[in-house]
Design brief:
The protein is mainly beta. The chain has helices at 7-13, 140-143, 244-250, 311-314; strands at residues 54-64, 70-74, 86-95, 104-109, 112-118, 129-135, 147-152, 165-174, 188-191, 201-205, 210-214, 220-231, 260-265, 268-274, 303-306, 320-327, 330-343, 351-357, 367-370, 373-374, 380-400, 403-423, 427-446, 449-470, 476-494, 497-516, 522-538, 543-551, 554-560.
């Protein structure tokens, strides 16, 4: 028999989870989904401005039955201008009934990632379909020129794994008007990867890097990096792993459970990005995610790192190497990143330098402790604790057409994890309580006066209670309780006056118990229930709230707008209620 704590890993890896039913994901339906067995989510759609968009179809009804890419060509929309109020990607996917793994799905153009997520698993009776959207307004510069793209969903179809995945995708360009001005978007968009059309890079360990040398324009004013790092293979369940010295004792994966994305410029630490503990639809117990998948499972959000303190350095006409790695990676993370650059339109040359960087000399080394104890019978109880907190300031100046602009990025990143164990002849129980956090302030000043400030706070709480109970005849149960949250607060200030603030909370709670016979075959499941709550509020009166509840794979409750004024969801077209990053805004001109 397998070590108790490793059984759920083989459950996912062997494809046993592919037997379980899944369903659809997308924008909230107009009608009530109560009674549906399709996946129903509370996530908001990307809000749109008024006006009829120009549409460019990237591909239609393409099937994915192997690991080959699916290429497509892109041409900017004719008769729609070269500046837009908003650009939105819409994609629709499906998979035929049968057995299939959850698969990673990515869309690309000119090496730049347009979408990153995973797919639903089908069942013998359910052929799920789902819809995803991404706000690509900040990628407008990329979309002004024709290029080559590709869709990548590596899939195996044979006599065992029969699910055929299909998909379509299009871009919607919303026209500029007096009420919906052109977005204040980056002037240049660069892919960090080496593939000219686009693909992710495998980062096998902490030393592996995704790197690229850039020769940038000599008038860089601001710079940001959108980061995706997705756990794969042995890293898929990184959030339950323990440091190597405990792995054999508690029958868990080694390598520890601290993960963090590290960004450097020319070898100098330049920022960090917290890693979200996404759980895919085959993860742990697939019934947990039926009919509501985990937070962002089908549509990941990038984390945006502010590199503006380096603007003066990046403008010096010398190639600069930007690198991305994942601290703690243990085979492996799939990574991509996109560099977004704003230029000074009134200066041919920007100069400057880094004045202060306290991230240098602060390696991401967590502290480890435990309260584990083993009694005379060999029973193990206690906790393994992993903690890390770093505070740093990166400050630089750039001589621009506005004068000398000092930019300071101050950030506190935290990681706190407790793995609690109860291991004896009849029980293997592991309780994971993890909190990843990042509090950031980006501040610009001219002549000693703070002109602009952006504050952001993110929290990624994860709770997993995985309880295996073994009977004398060799049969056993696997009971799981899961809690995920994505919490984000942001605020923009101009000359000390708050112009705009917003907060997002996306919470998923799921529970289920699997039954197994002595040969490790699934004989049934009980107690499946799940809820999702998605809430967004901003200082302009924007409000979005939706709640979904399900029992035994069927939607049993659904509310939309409850808690908002007049019990109606109302969000402004320029807002980001899905929690996606933004550094500019068409309405307020940030």
């Amino acid at each position: 028999m397998l070590p108790k704590g490793l059984f759920r890993r083989r459950l996912a890896a062997a494809g046993l989870s592919c037997m379980f039913a899944c369903s659809a994901f997308g924008a909230i339906a107009a009608s009530s989904p109560i009674g549906s067995t399709n996946v129903t989510v509370a996530d908001p759609a990307v809000p749109r401005p008024s006006g009829t968009p120009c549409v460019v179809q990237l591909f239609s009804n393409v099937t994915f039955t192997d690991f080959n890419t699916r290429p497509y060509t892109y041409t900017p929309p004719a008769g729609c201008g070269t500046r837009w109020a908003k650009v939105v990607l819409e994609a629709d996917f499906s998979v035929t009934a049968g057995r299939q793994y959850d698969r990673t799905a990515t869309l690309w153009l000119g090496g730049v990632n347009l979408y990153f997520g995973t797919t639903q698993e089908p069942s013998s009776a359910v052929a799920p379909s789902w819809h995803v959207e991404r706000d690509l307004t900040d990628y407008s510069a990329l979309l002004r020129q024709a290029g080559n793209g590709q869709a990548i969903i590596g899939n195996v179809v044979n006599s065992t794994y029969t699910g055929v995945i299909a998909g379509s995708a299009r871009l919607l360009f919303y026209p500029v008007s007096a009420r919906t001005p052109a977005a204040v978007a980056p002037d240049v968009v660069y892919p960090l990867g080496s593939d000219p059309v686009g693909s992710t890079t495998e980062l096998d360990n902490s030393s592996s890097q995704l790197t690229k040398a850039f020769s940038l324009p000599r008038n860089v004013e601001r710079a940001y990096l959108d980061v995706f790092v997705q756990s794969q293979n042995a890293d898929e369940f990184w959030y339950t792993c323990v440091p190597d010295q405990y792995a054999a004792e508690v029958q868990e994966c080694g390598g520890g459970n601290f993960r963090e994305a590290e960004i450097s410029i020319d070898g100098q630490p330049a920022g960090v990005a917290p890693v979200y503990p996404w759980i895919y639809t085959g993860g742990i117990d697939p019934y947990l995610w039926r009919p509501t998948p985990g937070v962002q499972t089908l549509n990941f959000m990038p984390y945006r790192v502010d590199l503006t303190p380096f603007a003066g350095v990046l403008s010096n006409g010398v190639p600069h190497q930007v690198a991305l790695s994942v601290a703690g990676a243990s085979n492996y993370f799939s990574a991509t990143a996109t560099l977004l650059v704003y230029l000074d339109a009134h200066a041919r040359q920007v100069s400057g330098q880094i004045e202060r960087n306290t991230l240098v000399g602060q390696p991401p080394t967590p502290t480890i402790g435990d309260t584990l104890s083993t009694d005379a019978a060999g029973d193990i109880t206690g906790d393994i604790n992993t903690n890390l907190s770093r505070h740093f300031i990166i400050q630089g100046y750039a001589d621009t057409s506005h004068g000398r602009v000092h930019t300071k990025v101050e950030q506190t990143v935290g990681f706190a994890d407790t793995q609690g164990f109860t291991i004896n002849a009849t029980t293997y129980r592991q309780v994971t309580d993890q909190l990843t956090s990042a509090d950031s302030v980006s501040q610009s000043s001219v002549g000693g006066f703070v002109t602009g400030e952006y504050r952001e706070s993110v929290r990624y709480p994860l709770h997993l209670d995985i309880n295996e109970q073994f009977a004398a005849d060799g049969s056993f149960t696997l009971a799981t309780v899961a809690h995920q949250d994505y919490a984000k607060r942001s605020e923009y200030q101009l000359f000390g006056i708050s112009l705009y603030s917003a907060k997002v909370n996306n919470t998923v709670d799921s529970a289920d118990t699997l039954d197994f016979d002595a040969s490790e075959n699934v004989t049934g499941h009980t107690g499946q229930q799940s809820t999702q709550t998605f809430a967004f509020h901003d200082s302009l009166g924007g409000c979005y709230r939706s709640d979904v509840g399900a029992t035994s794979g069927v939607v049993t409750s659904y509310d939309s707008g409850k808690g908002c004024p007049d019990q109606q969801n109302r969000v402004y077209w320029f807002s980001h209620p899905d929690g996606s990053p933004d550094t500019g805004n068409a309405m307020l001109g940030w």
